[in-house]
Amino acid sequence: VSKKPVTQPVSKEPIKIGAVLPLTGRSAFVGTLLKEGLEWKIEELKRQGIPIEFYIEDTQSDNNQAITAFQNLVNNKGTKIIFTISSPHGMTLKPLAEQYRVLLWADTGHPDQTKNSQYVLRHSNTVDKDAEILYNFVKTKNYKKVGIIYQQDDWGVAWNNIMSDYFKQDKVEVSSEAIDPKSSDFRSQITKILSKDPDAVLLLSAGTAVGYLVKQIKELNYNKDLYTANGFVLSSDAQTIAGDYAKGMYYLDYERNPQFEKDYEQKFGKKPSVVGFVGYTDIELLYYAITQTKSTDPEKIISFIKNLKEFEGKYEKVLIQPTGDLLMLTNLKVWE
Q1: Which of 106, 172, 246, 263 could form a disulfide with 242 if both were Cys (CB 3.0 to 4.6 A apart)?
Q2: Which pLDDT belongs to residue 3?
């Protein structure tokens, strides 16, 4: 049964919510878009008289700082509900969520984010689902040789491992090169991949790095099929860097909501990221769970949400798995 969000005060005690986000550094583009959505919905609830205390910590895209921030929110602010984004942060904080019995709402793509976990929810597309969508298209092309360039972190490594396994099962020759996503010159890795004369190249990176990858591989005269994961469509900086070099490239994209795009532009005076609604829906669903359970206890909230099956928010309908995965589906498009 589809659930509509309701708004009613639960108690006079403020609801404490924390966010451990990369607001500076290489992952700032995803941290900022989650922050905007979270704050947007929290502001609306506050205007309705719902008492909420919201604490944000900037990790500077560093996992050690994410740990410090998480512990500060739990130990010094008494926060039992904490949001984060990016697979490196999510996977780093996962064991702490179990240890402290805190709800970690990790909007990340890593396949293992919610695996064997009691205290993690995740509202995101996932690497394994996205890889399946990408591969189902790629295999129709009957490539003999494929190159993969992936960023050296939890998300990138998961992408490389899953795609490499797919190719090897189908007897496709695959060569991979890892990159440091904080860098901006990837010509040596690209040259190594192109020396194998691949029929297609997959650029499994995010942020500015994927923009430089697209630009530099085309500057090195690669003119066969090119693919990017959803890291490209999430970053306007990457799109600016790649410019016209991205034309004709295959990329993973999300379903768009025209009403959200209109409302976002009216509020923020700029065009939204394609998944800018994620944080908004997160708070909608969290508050709905709090009103229904009449509790801010992480275990009660998590149990309620895991058993919900689906949730109809203002800007998206979310399918909820018993694992605590709130799935967003992607599809493959050609960049024009």
Answers
A1: 246
A2: 53
* Number of CB atoms found within 10 A of residue 241's CB: 21
Place of tokens 């959803």: 230
Average pLDDT over residues 184-194: 98
Half-sphere exposure of 72 (CA within 13 A, CB side): 14
Predicted confidence (pLDDT) per residue in 17-54, tens digit: 999 999 999 899 899 989 999 999 999 999 999 999 99
User: Cα dist. 323→90, 96, 149, 241 in Å?
Assistant: 16, 18, 30, 38
Query: DSSP 3-state assignment of 108?
Result: coil
Pairing of strands 103-107, 52-58: unpaired
Q: How far is CA 10 from CA 22, 94, 114, 161, 247, in A?
A: 31, 28, 28, 45, 51
Res 11: pLDDT: 56
**Per-residue CA distances from 117 to 104, 113, 253 (Å):** 10, 8, 28
Prediction pTM value: 0.85
How large is the average pLDDT for residues 219-244?
A: 96
> Rounded CA gap, 77 and 79, in Å?
5
Q: Where are the alpha helices (DSSP H) in 221-294?
A: 231-234, 236-242, 258-268, 278-293
Mean pLDDT of the chain: 94
Nearest to 81 by CA among 282, 281, 298: 298
Nearest Cα to Cα of residue 235 among 27, 11, 3, 14: 27
Residue 4: what pLDDT? 52
Residue-wise pLDDT for 124-164, tens only, equals 999 999 999 999 999 999 999 999 999 999 999 999 999 99
